[in-house]
Amino acid sequence: MIVQEQEAIDKAVEAITGDMGALWITLAAILVFFMQAGFTLLEIGFTRSKNSGNIIMKNVMDLAVGSVMFWAVGYAIMYGSDLVGGGFFRSSPSDQGYFFFSADDWYNLFFQTVFCATAATIVSGAIAGRTKFSTYLIFSAILTTLIYPISGSWYWPFDDDAWLNTAGFVDFAGSSVVHAVGGAAALVAAILVGPRIGKYVDGKAQAIPGHNMAFGALGVFILWLGWFGFNGGSQLAWGGDDTIGATSVIINTNLAAAIGAIAALFFTWARYGKADISMTLNGALAGLVGITAGCGSVNAWGALAIGLVCGIVVVLSIEFIDKKLKIDDPVGAISVHGVCGFLGTVLIGLFALDGGLFYGGSGKLLWVQTYGSLAYIVWAAVASFVVLFILKKTIGLRVSEQEEVDGLDMHEHGVEAYPEHISQDK
Q1: What's the pLDDT at 421?
Q2: Using H for helix, E for strand and C for coil, what is the string for 234-277?
Q3: Cβ distance 33 to 114 under 8 Å?
Q4: Residues 240-245: contacts with CB under 8 Å, at least 24 apart
Q5: Cα 277 to the chain's mean position, in Å?
Q6: How many CB atoms lie within 10 A of CB 420?
Q7: What are the UniProt keywords, alphabetically (predicted)?
Q8: How far apart (Å, rounded) are the C-alpha atoms in residues 403 and 414?
Q9: Greatest C-alpha distance within the chain
Q10: What sign does the dihedral 100-106-108-111 (CA atoms) show?
Q11: For residues 180-206, average pLDDT
């Protein structure tokens, strides 16, 4: 009788713990969903007002198109039971994966869907102000249906069939799986679309200031908040040790963001003689992106170190890409997500408590982290190039010169985001 009672208690506790975990993942997914508002405000604030409506539409459609396509196809490619192409991606019978209808796993679908939408949205900021809306919609659909799910299947199913998981690769919440993939796609897109009119004059980069830094700052605060769900929810459970794990991840996330902002602030203050606002905001985001891979593998000191490095590197990277490579990225998305996504992933090889070089590791983890992150970058860059090159040669990537000068809001959507004509950048 005592044994039976104990078994009943254990089952009840297990059920409650499972429900608490599902609730935590759902709440975390809602926070990540809200990050879409942060990306929208950040991109609007860092660019010209005449394109604000177009940016709103792109971010809304990233979420809308991504939600449908990931539900219909992407989730099965990423988490399917059957391996295709020697494990290059996955698949599932239609009643198990495509057009997802697994009621006991809805919360995981929702959580992974908002991650997928985040990867797509990264591209939007890098090509703001000069890209055809119709072309962008097609690329966003392909990224959320194929490009992101295929690369995600290499690691996040957490089984022996995922080749990077088997190799010992670590990316807790997606510095590479989400951010480096989005950053690499953004780099290719920015190169193929080309710079905005007036960005480079006689070979020299010209500043094109954003129209509303308050929007940009509010966007960063929303993203910072949402990141607690992005990283904390990636614990994928709640209760007991998982509660400690999830909250430690949140602390590491906050510390990295804070020190990233501080590092960018003082670095630009020393470099430019002024405390640069946009670079400080991007410093916070760089810390967030950088710690996303290792937030469950490092201690607070490791989180501070990763955030500090990323907060400085993002400033140098934005300058290098803008002035040396002459690639026009209005919001710094390539540097924040691509460069810092790669850097944060690699730094796990130094700061991980288990296997990090600074904690007695042999260097194997550092090597795995490096080639694993590069695999994501190369895949996203090559796949994006193929898709965007075809689009460029068929329907075109870029609006006309006159449409760009007038603003995409009027030509692409027939309305201005600021009807009172408060814009100073026409």
Answers
A1: 52
A2: HHCCCCCHHHHHHHHHHHHHHHHHHHHHHHHHHHHHHHHCCCCH
A3: yes
A4: 240/17, 242/21, 245/296
A5: 22
A6: 6
A7: Ammonia transport, Membrane, Transmembrane, Transmembrane helix, Transport
A8: 12
A9: 87
A10: positive
A11: 97
DSSP state at residue 47: S
pTM above 0.90, yes or no: yes
Q: Which helix (H) or strand (E) holds 93?
A: none
d(CA 298, CA 317): 25
Q: What share of the chain is helix, strand, coil (3-state, %, to 5)?
A: 70, 5, 25
Distance separating alpha carbons of residues 158 and 89, to the nearest angstrom: 14
Does residue 84 surpass a pLDDT of 50? yes
Which parts of 9-141 are beta strand (E)?
A: 82-84, 89-91
- Residue 382: other Cβ atoms inside 10 A: 13
Beta strand pairing status for 89-91 and 200-201? unpaired
- Inform me whether the pLDDT recorded for 98 exceeds 80: no
296-to-9, 23, 26, 27, 399 alpha-carbon distances in Å: 31, 20, 20, 19, 44
Residue type for position 105? D
Q: Do the bridges between strand 204-205 and strand 89-91 make them parallel or antiparallel, or are there none, so unpaired?
A: unpaired
Please count the other Cβ atoms lying within 10 Å of the Cβ belonging to residue 94.
10
Q: Which residue has the higher pLDDT, 132 or 13?
A: 132
Q: In this predicted model, what pLDDT tens digit does every residue of 389-410 receive, in sequence order?
A: 999 999 999 999 999 999 999 9
Which amino acid type is present at position 300?
A
Q: Torsion-angle region of residue 201: left (phi > 0), alpha (psi -120 to 50) or beta?
A: beta
Q: Looking at residue 201, what DSSP letter applies?
A: E
How far apart CA 31 and CA 121 sit, in angstroms, is 16
- Residue 344's identity, in one-letter code, is G
In the predicted structure, residue 420 carries a pLDDT above the cut 90: no
Q: Which residue has the tokens 């809308």?
A: 64
Find tokens 């140098």 and name the residue. 316
